[in-house]
Each structure stands twice: as C-alpha cells, then as structure tokens.
From TrEMBL:
Protein name per Swiss-Prot or TrEMBL: Enoyl reductase (ER) domain-containing protein
Limits of the Enoyl reductase (ER) domain: 23-342
Gene3D superfamilies tied to this protein: Medium-chain alcohol dehydrogenases, catalytic domain (3.90.180.10), NAD(P)-binding Rossmann-like Domain (3.40.50.720)
Keywords associated with the record: Oxidoreductase
Database matches in CDD domains: PGDH
Domain of life: Bacteria
InterPro entries the record matches: ADH-like_C, ADH_N_2, ER, GroES-like_sf, MDR_fam, NAD(P)-bd_dom_sf
PANTHER family from the UniProt entry: PROSTAGLANDIN REDUCTASE (PTHR43205), PROSTAGLANDIN REDUCTASE 1 (PTHR43205:SF7)
Gene Ontology terms for molecular function: oxidoreductase activity, acting on the CH-CH group of donors, NAD or NADP as acceptor
Length: 348
C-alpha cells in the first residue's frame, strides 16, 4: 500500500463550520493497480458550499422518501472523507485511455493521491494559457453550473432584467457575467463593501448592492422598478422571498443553491408563493449533472469570451491539503471572493 494524506470529518457541526470539525490523517491506497484503474496526484481542489447540507443534518424536509432523488453523494458522518471537484495528473495507468502525464478532472475525495477507475475521469488540456485551476473555474464545474442555470434553464436573453444573489461567489460571479454577455441587464448582491466594488468595477454589472447594508426588497425595488424577468438564486431564505416579491409577470426563477438554509434543518421557505399564481411565475431547480449535453456549447462560448478578455476569472486560493477545511469554512462565512481553490504541494 502507498501512504497518502487525507482530510476526514472528526466532529459533527451543530452550527457554523470551523476547521476544527476536520482532521488530516495518513492513509493508504493500493500499490498495485487493478484493471481499468488510474493512479492520480490531485493538484488542486475546488470547494463547494453545497457540501454543508450533507454535514450533520438529516434530510428532515425531503418529503416522500420513496420519490426518486439524484444527489452528488449521501450524508457525511464522523470519519468520512469529503469530496469535491479536483484537477489531477495521471501517475500510472492500466488502461489505454490514459497515460502518465495526462491531466484529468474528477469528483475526488479530499486526498493527496488516489486510485480511481478510468471511467470516473475526464481528460483536459492544461497549458500555459490554461492552468489546472482554470478547469475548476471558468472552464470547470463552477462556470458550467452558472451556464446551465442561466442559459439552459433560465433561457436568459437580451431583454431580461436579471437578479443574481451571491453574485461575488464562484457560481454567482459567472452567472452574472454570462447574463451580461448575453445582453441582459444584471443586478447582483453581495455581503461586503469590497465585494460590492468587485461587482461594480470588475464584473461591470448594471447595478449591485450590499444586502447587509440595504434590504434586498428595497434594493430590487430601486434597481428593477418594473420587475425582474429572471432571478438566479444561490441563497434561498429571506433573499429568495424578496426576489419573488420583485418578479414581474411571467418571471422565471432558477434555483441553484440554498446557502442560507444549509445549516438550518428547520428553515422555512418563502411565505409569498401566492405571487406565483397572481403573476404567473415559474421556479425551476436543476442539477448540472443532468445537462452534460450542454458542455460543448458552454466550452465554445467560454473559450470565445476568454480569448476576448470578456470574462473576469477570480479565485481565493489556499495552499496545502490541510487548508481544505479552512477554505471550506471561509467560503461558508462569506470570506472568499470567486471560487475557493486549494492548491496541493507538488511533492504531496
């Protein structure tokens, strides 16, 4: 067996996540590869806020448990290894599909090295203009999620007045930019003065506000007095309720995340659902895994935007396998801008 380092959950959270809820441990992976397997060195991880809903919280409000639900993974308990998107380099392979030196992306346990079935990997082209982190951000799951929700589900167009909550975050920042690049008028919210400047000065949104300084309902009434036609929601809770109140007739709401509710098993939904009848609204949730057929269109669009310097790519970067818990807790606390990326030591 080969020794590697991994991150495990060591304590179930009852409130806010801190690095102390995790620990770094030595473990082992097979030295001899089974057929169809690949040994990889994980080079960088992206951290997803959605994982918070899987830590120490039973799915108390999922309704009919017999109804089919497709999720990324199940609940995490003490001793389990979290996982998220990663870019890795192939070290050894028993399949002709991959060779040493190839770059791949996969949903990876928080581990420095691993043995993975080749079917779980997707090859990517890493180079001087396309560093590994790019496949976690502008060409990765982050921006792809934003594209699917905004284009495939939301059908954003030039006539739309769009609101994006958590617009300085990983997915939100790309969703806002994609809507702008497709001609829409975009309003974004965030939680600090620094991020507000980022939305206005770098992402070039039509309007932006700090929801901690200005009530969401008040801001949307000012910036979209005739009503929103499209909302891309990453937050849920009171912010979603305010967005529903700001929708114009036949408005569309795309549900991407519920970060305000992830740690609250008793959280309640919006109280103004009657507006869906009165204004003939629609609200759609989605999972990006069901839209793989859109990847080619997404990549073609994104590569074009990148080549013309039309997309801002920004991440908050952490270093080392033991920084994963800190990156995750910082993301949940709103202390990161763009996607939270963790780079691993080349010797790991």
């Amino acid at each position: 067996m080969t020794s590697v380092s991994e991150i495990r959950l060591v304590k179930l959270p009852e409130g806010n996540i801190t690095p102390e809820h995790f620990g770094c441990f030595d473990t082992s992976v097979p030295t001899v590869l089974p057929a169809g397997a690949v040994r990889v060195r994980n080079v960088c991880f992206g951290v997803n806020a959605g994982m918070r809903s899987r830590l120490g919280r039973a799915a108390a409000h999922d309704g009919n448990k017999a109804a089919a639900t497709h999720s990324y993974a199940g609940q995490l308990g003490v001793g389990d290894v979290p996982q998220s998107d990663a870019v890795a380099q192939v070290l050894e392979s028993t399949t002709a599909d991959f060779k040493p030196g190839d770059w791949v992306v996969h949903i990876a346990p928080w581990r420095t090295r691993d043995v993975v079935q080749a079917s779980k990997l997707r090859r990517v082209d890493v180079g001087a203009q396309k560093p590994p982190e790019m496949y976690l951000t502008a060409l990765g799951h982050t921006a792809f999620t934003a594209y699917v929700g905004m284009v495939e589900v939301g059908k954003v167009g030039a006539k739309d007045s769009v609101y994006v909550s958590a617009a300085a975050g990983g997915v939100g920042s790309y969703a806002a930019q994609i809507a702008r690049l497709r001609g829409a008028r975009v309003i974004g919210s965030t939680g600090s003065a620094e991020k507000l400047a980022y939305l206005r000065d770098e992402l070039k949104l039509s309007a932006a506000f700090n929801y901690k300084a200005t009530a969401v309902a008040e801001a949307l009434a000012e910036f979209a007095p005739e009503g929103l036609s499209l909302c891309y929601d990453n937050v849920g809770g009171e912010q979603l309720e305010a967005a529903i109140a700001a929708m114009g007739e036949h408005g569309r709401i795309v549900l991407c995340g519920m970060v305000s509710d992830y740690a609250q098993p008793d959280a309640h939904g919006p109280r103004n659902l009657h507006l869906f009848i009165k204004r003939r609204l629609c609200m759609t949730g989605f999972t990006v895994l069901e839209h793989e057929s859109a990847r080619a269109d997404f990549e073609a669009s994104m590569r074009g935007w990148l080549s013309r310097d039309e997309v801002v790519v920004r991440s908050t970067v952490f270093a080392g396998i033991d920084a994963l818990p800190r990156a995750f807790s910082s993301l949940l606390a709103g202390a990161t801008t763009g996607w939270a990326v963790v780079r691993l030591d080349a010797a790991a």
